[in-house]
Each structure stands twice: as structure tokens, then as C-alpha cells.
Design goal:
374 residues, alpha/beta, globular
Length: 374
Amino acid sequence: MAGIYLHIPFCKQACYYCNFYFSTSLAGKDKMVESLLQEIDLQRNYLSGEPVQTIYFGGGTPSLLSTAELQQLLSRLHSTFEVAPDAEITLEANPDDLDIPKLEALRDAGINRLSIGVQSFHETDLRWMNRAHNSQQALECITNAQQLGFRNITIDLIYGGPTLSDEGWEQNVRQAIALGIPHLSCYALTVEPGTALDHFIRKKKMAATDPDKAARHFEQLMQWLEAAGYEHYEISNFALPGWHSRHNSSYWQGRSYLGLGPSAHSFNGHSRQWNVANNATYMKSIAAGQIPAEIETLTTAMQFNEYIMTSLRTSAGCDLEWVSGKFDAASTQHLEKESRQFISKGWMVQEGKYLRLTRAGRLFADGIAAELFL
């Protein structure tokens, strides 16, 4: 089963920390929707007839699309691909877009999962991040969505920021638990090159991030959510039983997916491609019947490294039998040898045929994975 991702590259305003591709000008939104409809047609054979189990509208801010535009895109996807009757259809949204009429329209259009960019329930944090919504809107949109029948809701929270105290972080997490939100995606604040936050920190206009605080917040997060019954099924993702993200899980499990829109990535098992991150160039190429993408064929080493990186981020872990069957004996021996140092440190355990990170090891997940690469 495959997934489809649509990148909607528009935002009302730029959050200081964000490095995703987007534009704050909505002037070309209508033309962008037309281009997405055309790209769906151009990419009709990319998934080789695989049934589609998930559709994900990301961005940017997909909730800026009108209901009619979303319905157009969904209708074209259903007529072009074999979409499963129980497909998970997610829309990323900002709280300030989700008033009751909008929520009703999204529900009626077929959106059955909301990914809400809350980031914090504290006004000070939201202003510091330059978010478009306020804390009251964060609370109201969740309760309104629940009252209108949305059960499958995830929210984003950011920890480790200079305005967020330990007490404030606990309040954020406790608020999410109290609201009965079944899925949380929680990320440490990172300073990406070229972002406004990077500029402000270098100019001494904002305080630098504190890695010790971020590590502490992550450890607290794991403790609180485990006690509340959430499964820590991927480094940044926590869910109550039965509420894992089907779309994101497909990425971590190495399934095929098609990315549509500027900057979107696609993967078919043996190659990866990514569209140009420029609205004008993207739309011009699509109008000419061409996919404006770079393609990379994955070598054996690249496939091995990608599996190590994604599998170790999940609670399922790395399947040694699968590695042995997929790759040569030398690759398997390399993995078993290099993993011993992390097992001895208590950062990793081998349970049957699986290698898994311990709670302590999750703090160093990327570094551990890099040490295991070919």
C-alpha cells in the first residue's frame, strides 16, 4: 500500500524557526491548484498501480485552501489512483484557520485526520515563534474539532525554546493529555541555517537554544506520556494504542509514496526524486507537461543506511533477519559488530532478531545511526 503527499506552499506569515518551502504571497494559489491537478495526471503511473492507503496535505499551510480546492484535488486523486475505502486523509492546519464552518467543511470534504500546528499553549512562546494563532485559538480549535466528530487528531508541540520553562513544558504536555488528543508529534527547537531564528541568534537579537534543556524536556516528555498510556513508536511521535500515523509510518517502513507540488519528494523503492522548490519554475514546467524533478538512484549502501536511520527511530527497531536477507553478509556483520559498542553503553539492546534503542539511546538516535552506516 502506498501513500500520496501534496505540498501546499503557502503560509500567512513566516514562523521564525521554519525552513520548509513556502511563500507568504497567496497570489498564485489558484494556479498552483491547477498545477497540482495536472501533476496528478502526469504522475498517474508512478506508484505502478499500488493501492493508496494514505493521503497527506502538508506544507506550508494546507488549511489555507478552500473546501472546493481540497475537493477538486481529492476527486482527481480518487479518479486517478486506487484509493482504499478506509484511506487515512490528513490535513495539516493552523489553529487560526479552524473555525467551526471550516471544520464542518473539512469533515464533509472527506478529511478524516487533522494535524494541528499548536506548538505551545503559552502566549509567550507563540509570540516568540511568530505564530499566527494565539493560545485561546489553540484550545478552541481542538475542542471544536472533537465536538464536530474528528477523533483522529494529532498536534505538534515544540520544546527546548528559550521562553519555555520546565514548568511551562509540563503544562503543555498535561494540557494535551487532558484534551484526550490521541497523537502527539513533539520536536526540539532547532536552528536551521537561513531561517529568521538563525539570523536573530547570530545578531544577538534572540537567545541561543540550550541543548541541555532540550534533552531534559525530551526525557520528561517520555516519562509523562508513557505514564499516560501513550506509545513512543517513533523518536518524535507518541500515540495512544491504535492511533499511530499510518502515513508517516509508511515512510519509516520504506513503502512507496508519491510527492506532489514544489519541493515534494517521492520514493518507489529503488529511486528517490524531489521537485524543484520554486513555485514559478514548478508551475511553468508542469504547464509544459514536464515534472521538474531531480532523480537519484539508490545504491545498496544508500538503501542500507536509510533503513538503519529510519528503523532505529521506531519502537519496532532494526530487523536483523530482514537486513541479512536484503543485503550481503558483510553488511550484516558490519551492523552486528558496530552495534556492540552501543549495547555495552546501554543505548541499544538486541531482543531476538531486533536491535532497538533504549530510552537513553533515543537521545542520540541520529549519531548512533550514522556510526552504523556503511
